[in-house]
Q: What sequence folds into this?
């Protein structure tokens, strides 16, 4: 990270405000992978709850402060807990993932009148959707175009339809769902090398498996699934309504 001269752009400010106003009061905001946790404690108040003793965590907090400086939002910092990360990077990463999953398990339906938890919704019905190329910044702060994807979900309590970030979908559903792609003709599930070996040795790969490129039957393939070898399963044939 270039730590010296970072200044928020108007898009950064707009994005952050849009994100914060989408969190209900009492909700947690933990910007991905930074070891920071904030709670929205008022209409325009954010309280820092946890910060990790790591330069990137400190820098990200500084950026949050810089981004909100020109807005009406205030950031309360006095009650923050300083977390010392494990010296083993793998262990630290694992702890951070567990923490993120714990937070994700608290997310509830975007419909304010419904408090059904996202983690209890039928996540396996999530549909990957592309929103086309969008402007973004790379690690060095240069403007680039990236393909933006979301996962569409439906609340099974109130039928609200909404979209979440692929990373958040992975946190909620784990790798099993993250590496699955449902299409109108069937579902692709990414195989491990061991699974490919078993299916090929068993002589069934030709009928059950397929490699994926950038598109499949005219549909763009989600980027993280491109170039993988998948199990392909047709949807169970409907004969008189779905099972509940
Ligand atoms: Zn709902």
A:
């Amino acid at each position: 990270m270039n730590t010296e001269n970072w200044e928020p752009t108007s898009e950064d400010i707009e994005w952050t405000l849009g994100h914060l106003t989408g969190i209900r009061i009492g909700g947690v905001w933990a910007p991905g992978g930074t070891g920071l946790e904030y709670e929205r404690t008022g209409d325009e108040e954010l309280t820092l709850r946890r910060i990790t003793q790591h330069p990137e965590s400190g820098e990200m907090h500084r950026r949050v402060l810089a981004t909100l400086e020109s807005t009406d939002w205030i950031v309360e910092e006095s009650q923050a807990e300083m977390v010392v990360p494990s010296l083993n990077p793998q262990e630290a990463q694992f702890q951070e993932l567990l923490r993120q999953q714990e937070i994700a398990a608290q997310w509830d339906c975007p419909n304010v009148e419904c408090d059904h938890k996202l983690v209890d919704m039928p996540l396996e019905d999530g549909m990957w959707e592309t929103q086309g190329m969008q402007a973004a910044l790379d690690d060095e702060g240069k403007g680039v175009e990236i393909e933006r994807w979301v996962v569409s979900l439906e609340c099974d309590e109130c039928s609200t339809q909404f979209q979440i970030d692929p990373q958040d979908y992975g946190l909620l559903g784990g790798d099993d769902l993250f590496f699955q792609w449902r299409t109108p003709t069937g579902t692709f599930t990414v195989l491990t090398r061991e699974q490919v070996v078993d299916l090929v040795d068993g002589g069934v790969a030709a009928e059950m498996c397929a490699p994926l490129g950038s598109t499949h039957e005219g549909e763009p393939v989600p980027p993280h699934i491109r170039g993988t070898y998948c199990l392909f399963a047709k949807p169970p044939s409907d004969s008189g309504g779905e099972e509940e």
In short: Residues 240-244 have pLDDT under 50 and may be disordered. The chain has six helices and 14 strands.
